[in-house]
Description:
- The chain is an alpha/beta fold.
- 33% of the residues lie in helices and 22% in strands.
- The strands form 6 sheets. Strands 1, 2, 3, 4, 5, 6 and 7 form a 7-stranded mixed sheet that branches. Strands 18-19-20-22-21 form a 5-stranded mixed barrel.
- β19 (430-434) and β20 form a beta hairpin.
Amino acid sequence: xxxxxxxxxxxxxxxxxxxxxxxxxxxxxxxxxxxxxxxxxxxxxxxxxxxxxxxxxxxxxxxxxxxxxxxxxxxxxxxxxxxxxxxxxxxxxxxxxxxxxxxxxxxxxxxxxxxxxxxxxxxxxxxxxxxxxxxxxxxxxxxxxxxxxxxxxxxxxxxxxxxxxxxxxxxxxxxxxxxxxxxxxxxxxxxxxxxxxxxxxxxxxxxxxxxxxxxxxxxxxxxxxxxxxxxxxxxxxxxxxxxxxxxxxxxxxxxxxxxxxxxxxxxxxxxxxxxxxxxxxxxxxxxxxxxxxxxxxxxxxxxxxxxxxxxxxxxxxxxxxxxxxxxxxxxxxxxxxxxxxxxxxxxxxxxxxxxxxxxxxxxxxxxxxxxxxxxxxxxxxxxxxxxxxxxxxxxxxxxxxxxxxxxxxxxxxxxxxxxxxxxxxxxxxxxxxxxxxxxxxxxxxxxxxxxxxxxxxxxxxxxxxxxxxxxxxx
Length: 474
Ligand code: SAH
Ligand code: SF4
Ligand code: F3S
């Protein structure tokens, strides 16, 4: 969610890790290699780390080379039609490999597995295994079944499963930033969204298991942790012994206190649930990053109502005002959908003006894609023509680009504390890292600084996407 909201990009990460595993008692899977490819949101990427951990127990080592895999797993996303299409194409890539190696197992995990269930096995004959997001503990049994020549499927959703006791294998990690999943599922039923169907009911993870994972990451030298959930602000966990209830604000504070030198981020916040208590907690702790991803989806009240977002334009604006009032240095980002059912030009203009009002530092933008089974698919015709959707989307992107650039210009000459993440993509002479506001800053390397260190960086140049600067050692 990178910024965890890489979520909404149908991004694809080939994950790799060195796992020291114990393959004793696992003769049937001894020395086998798994290749996991993850699509969709940060939650999915985080789930792949849980899957890797479950499979490591069975003697599977992670591999980044698909050619050497005995097991290929695609952790899939259903959020938009295009995301599903990408997966179907990817499965075809494995056809020749499967022909050459009969023993190769191909499995589909995640949201698309959950949405299509048995149909997936019928439609994609190459696939041996279909496992939904709440059923990963059954992977070893299902694999056993597949090795015996059957197909394996488990798409049961659960009201309790949080994988709290499973210690994730940190895949493709830079050793500096990590994710902690704090809840699963979503109860919101936004009318356009497939997630409540693919991820099931919302449930929060045991506070103590979250704190233990945090402590473990700190001991391993991680410097930044992102708390993950579809709707983190509705985190609510009741201590079974004391019956006291832990809210998201309380969790945030507890996590921030573990180590003041480790940054805390969180994603995603639903505007309806982010409370003053959360905002004051953010303001009170320097290590809680001053950045909120607060997707608006649309700037128009009629469309928001149809989307079942449970707030209107004015309510959202009040929330934005409150955030800047409590934390003037906070940045806010958003998700927006162009061309939702029946959206008029005037209503689209409301989304454009919201970008200006809210001063989003960045946005993840999409055109509406109807998802089977959702309320919108059942109730509202998908009647905005594709060319209009695409044009509106381009306008949203253009306004956002301009607003991001204007905001970045205000950062010229300022000095920020930056967590160095590694070499910049373009040059190994430069480092890149982010400030508390989640803005990427590129700056020349300097003796004495390495990835994982904090540096004071003065901004000297900006574009709409990045800041450039230099370390200010004093
Ligand atoms: N839980 C998060 C969002 C998860 S999905 C939230 O409530 O904000 C990530 C983004 O994908 C959403 O914010 C939305 O902008 C987009 N999205 C979801 N369903 C979509 C659809 N059917 N068509 C287009 N974009 C969609
Ligand atoms: Fe989907 Fe809405 Fe839940 Fe986000 S809050 S996952 S958009 S239903
Ligand atoms: Fe995430 Fe895509 Fe599922 S965005 S929750 S992987 S539908």
